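Sanity check

After download, print the first record. It should look like this:
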Amino acid sequence: MCVAIPGKLISIEGQHGIIDFNGNKIMVHIGLIDAKIGDYLLVHAGYAVQKLNQSEAEELENLFAELEDVLHD
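Expected structure tokens:
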């Protein structure tokens, strides 16, 4: 099973960007999409694969939080 995670682009360095995943900042490849600082991106295996609007990103983050709660119960 493959999972893509939403995060917010906070800086750009060439074809890479720093994505904030709820406080975890990771460098990912952003060359596959047209992204700018402040965009919410869906990231899989180190690559940004899709832009999201803020509500879509928040909805996915909430779903992952719910799954985490269920798995830890």
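If your output differs, re-run the checksum step. Summary of this record's structure: Helices lie at 54-72.
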